[in-house]
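Deliverable D4.2, example record:
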Amino acid sequence: MQHPQRKVAPHDLRHGAAGLCKAAAAGAKQHGAAGVYQHIPALVFQRDAALRHQQQIAGVLIRRQLVAADIQAQGGCGPLPVNFFPIRFHQKNPQLFVNFSPIIPRLHPAGKTKTIRRFSHESVAYPFHDAQRCFELENGLCYRPAHPFTVTLNGKTVYEACQTNVFSLFSLLPGTEYTVGVQAEGESLTCTFTTEAETFFVDASRYGLVADGTTDNTLKLQAALSTCPKGGTVYVPAGRYRTCSLFLKSNTTLYLEKGAVLLGDNDRTHYPILPGVIPSENEVDEYYLTGWEGNPLDSFAGLLNITQVHDVVVTGEGTLDCDAENGDWWVTPKIKRIAWRPRAVAAVDSENICLHGITVQNSYSWTIHPIFVKHLDLLNFNINNPYNAPNTDGIDPESCEYIRIIGVNIHVGDDCIAMKASKVFLGMKLKKSCEHTVIRNCLLDKGHGGIVIGSEMSGGVKDMVVTQCLMDHTDRGLRVKTRRGRGNTAVIDGLVFRNVEMRGVKAPFVINMFYFCDPDGHGPYVQCRDAMPVDEYTPKLGSLTMEDIVATDAQFAGCYFDGLPEQPIERVSMKNVTITFDPNAEAGQAAMADNRPLVKKLAIYAENVKEIDLHNVKIEGYEGERLHFANVGHFEED
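Output generated by the structure prediction step:
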């Protein structure tokens, strides 16, 4: 939840990332990965030592909806062929989207009104008590509005000066009518809605919790979660509760009250070990339960585990604190000790999952790691890890479908958001890409990369729209990283980055197909600059579109595109992009690859790219030649 002291302002109000409660469509069934993977035969790879070594590396029901894009709808909780399109804003004639709805069980094309004072609401039946709502301003600005605005609830001020485009309301009473008001720049907007009746309320404190930050509460918390009736909410009151791994079940909500902290256990021997691979009776089929950096390897269970379930919400104003800095989780992080490190929130083979409002901090490794999850909403919450905490990525969706990451504030010690699709074994065997993603109104602070693709992306990453995001002093902004050996299923295509602001990002745009990851990452197979045969292990980069982007105080390079000689980058299109360099810029490595010189104020470098289109691309403060091209095919600039 955004704090009252945070400022924000509107021209439009869009209610909606959701009532954060699911509408369970009649007869809806979970369509998870388990039923699919059991029928995929195993593949046997015989490759040179470098490839074998890599494979084994241990190392918001309604007429309108949140996304201000046309979304084609189908009923039920089953597969949704959602087409995400770029969001177009009209500042002089703003359009209003008003939505009060559960999280995407069913979607219909977004409706538009031509007056900001017209609101629409259609009631929906669903099993969860919608004690919280999430709202988004449609103003075309990145993360923050131009001026603060005031939010009222039934006439009482909730936020005096919000300054983020996304805000939430918590602790709403069931079966109650509410009127939300927004006042900004002499304009007032109101909307009335009624919350649904509550089904079951499970107060976890009745299970004997001890809120002293020391006593182990794992069994008591798990008892509350496991005995919660279908459609119920497990409520955790304020207090510090030491716990180990917890497992959520289908059709339930976990609500962390403001001041509630689930504090991770510091002893790794207390955490369950989840096997990466579970064999079947026929000794051929396999089920993949967890993984480490793209491979199905034994790992400790996370602090919160959302495994083989559907319709789960984690919400509230509380905190998940893994407390990793007080354990040994960040010591020699690349060495396996008993099992690979846990994640703060691990979700596997699940559907209709939502995280909202909470703060997640001090993660053991990757913070939010969903694998094979369909319909995933990550809404208006915070991730805080120290900048020097190793491998503590913010959000790493792996082979997931229909993802919305909206209003999230991320400050981490590695990549902020990294889209992934496994390494070569799972990628080529399952051929399961990460696709249909919307990332909007997020703050990506510090970290190695703002929005990242890869490097574990052997299943492919497709159809992603990033808009209205603010990147603040990340090392790189929009970053694609891959390498030989990821496989011909490793196709990256249909990526759109639009209306993004970067401040102090050292290298705003980087595409690197020589990324030196994994034990063989510095070897000749990965780093050879000569063309190699195109085979089943050669990755492919399709089209990338970047529009309406402003980057200030860059240092290393404005654009750095480094494709494979045997498989060049297909197309890079840039329109209305402005990059300015820090006058006091220092030299550094734009892309993590061998034999690449340190660079400073390098305008545009491109090697092995089939087509580059630059339209109204302005670069200021660079040194030397503006264009540094090698093996670039069609080039167009105006």
